[in-house]
Amino acid sequence: MTVEMNFDGLVGPSHNYAGLSHGNIASSTHKGQAANPRAAALQGLAKMRHMIDLGLPQGLLPPQERPYIPGLRALGYKGSDPAVLEAAFKDSPALVANYSSASCMWTANAATVTPGAESADGRVHFTPANLMAMPHRALEDAQTHRMLSLIFANRERFMVHAPLAHTPLLGDEGAANHNRLCKSHGAAGLELFIYGRDALGGNSDLKFPARQTLQASEAVARLHGLPEANTAFHPQSATAINAGAFHNDVVCVSNENVLFFHENAFDDPAALEEVLSIKAQRLGFRPHFIMAPTKDVPLADVISSYLFNSQLVTLPNGKMALILPTQVEETSSTKTFVDSVLAGDNPITQAHYLDLRQSMANGGGPACLRLRVVLDAAQQTAVHSGVVMAHEKIEALEGWVKDHYRDRLTGGDLGDPAFLTETRTALDAMTQLLDLPNLYDFQRTAS
User: Fold this and answer.
1) Cβ within 8 Å of residue 171, ≥6 positions away
2) 111-114, strands of its sheet edge to edge
3) Pairing label, strands 320-325, 311-314
4) What pLDDT score was predicted for residue 88?
5) Cβ contacts of 423 within 8 Å, gap of 6 or more
6) In whole angstroms, how far apart are CA 431 and each of 63, 212, 256, 387, 416?
7) Catalytic residue positions?
8) DSSP bridge pairs for 6
9) DSSP 409-430
10) What is the spatial distance between Cα 125 and Cα 230, in angstroms, rounded to a whole number?
11) Whether 174 contacts 114, CB under 8 Å
12) What is the per-residue pLDDT for 443?
């Protein structure tokens, strides 16, 4: 049986509010506030447990090594690891904040994934996102490539490509700008790549960066062996980007035959619906479009509540459910719209509201926290078992978080050598729980 498995990012011990992400309103709004890494990680694990309780397969992607001392060494800092951290922090706390970000928790940006049903060779293809638009995120792709190569190591079932080159031409933000429409998870479907700018086109007057380029999306499609019949490219609206939808998944989410989106996600929604309907018909299915009109759901409410940064999942009974942040329930316009969707004639029949306030304060909702991977039966057995979640594994990780994570972290703590020791101790213990030895640079150096 083919399933869609969500791989959630485990929030790292350096979760903090440094406000590093220009164009992400929540990140900027909470800059400088104290964060609670322990609560953030426990909220993420609670979401994973909820998904398992719904009968859905759940995986985990581990956090990256932060503070990232090898990166600071590459900038010319010398001495012991604590000395490198102290010297860099003395020179520039902002620099250390970039090298201490826990942003890899948002695994929707980890990679773009193509299921075997659409790829040229029948394997699941991954291209780690280079994330070059933001300095703190551009540090992630090499470790993401290594991590995915370990978790999806079977080369008969999986192909993990190298990230695209770090060039303005190929700005790639991963699955946050990628949707898939299909009759069922196992059937060949249509992959919709959304881009913010054509890097070879004219200039734009965007207020915030358009992070995904058309050229990056086209390159990923070629690498994954996607036929033209299974591929579509479409621009995100400048209106959405300028309002704070720095990724398309802030204003749009898909699942099987449903595209759930805001009217301002695209400049001409009707034209997009027509293109997708024609392509889908040739693939043997009919898309179901659910659009929130601006008059009922203001774009500002969408951005603040993250209505469309929800997970849209198919339950074991074939019905669909929305996994939403509690902010949607607390916002009148978005709650009313969700209620109308549940009462309407469409596949979505349930809404689940979860507390992800620590992640939300940094600009990441339920959809940011997960990477969707469609797997057939043979591919499921080939996934590294240590990252496949069950209640017992989640309970063990919750105990690990309580043992190792601080309940308060500020920017001033990031330069403390004691914090470096804490994070490494925590990550070393976690790799034992997940059976991923020598995942991190500090572990390989020590051995």
Assistant:
1) 130, 132, 133, 199, 211, 212, 213, 216
2) 111-114, 124-128, 158-160
3) antiparallel
4) 98
5) 12, 13, 14, 65, 66, 67
6) 10, 32, 34, 10, 23
7) 173, 247, 368
8) 58, 372
9) B-GGGTT-HHHHHHHHHHHHHH
10) 15
11) no
12) 93
- Beta strand 348-354 with 231-235 is unpaired
CB atoms within 10 A of CB 407: 11
Cβ proximity of 370 and 60 under 8 Å: no
Are the C-beta atoms of residues 91 and 125 closer than 8 Å to each other? no
Task: Look up residue 201 and give its amino acid.
Answer: G
Longest dimension (CA), the chain: 64
Tell me phi and psi for residue 249, to 5 degrees: -70, 0
- The values of phi and psi at residue 63, to 5°, are -70, 160
Tokens of 187: 């059937």
Task: Give the length of the chain.
Answer: 447
Predicted local confidence at residue 24, as pLDDT: 63
Which structure tokens are listed for 4?
Answer: 């869609």
Nearest C-alpha neighbor of 97 from the set 12, 25, 14, 37: 14
Specify which residues 253 forms β-bridges with.
260
Distinct helix (H) and strand (E) counts, the chain: 17, 15
Element at 6 (helix H, strand E): strand 3-9
Q: How many CB atoms lie within 10 A of CB 215?
A: 21
Q: Is the peptide bond before 209 cis (omega within 30 degrees of 0)?
A: no
What are the residue ranges in the chain where pLDDT is below 50?
A: none
Task: Please give the model's pTM, rounded to 2 decimal places.
Answer: 0.96
- DSSP-derived 3-state class of residue 334: helix
Domains in the chain: ranges and CATH: 3-239+355-446 (3.75.10.20)
- Take residue 60 and report the two structure tokens written for it: 């985990």
Specify whether the CB–CB gap between 115 and 184 falls below 8 A: no
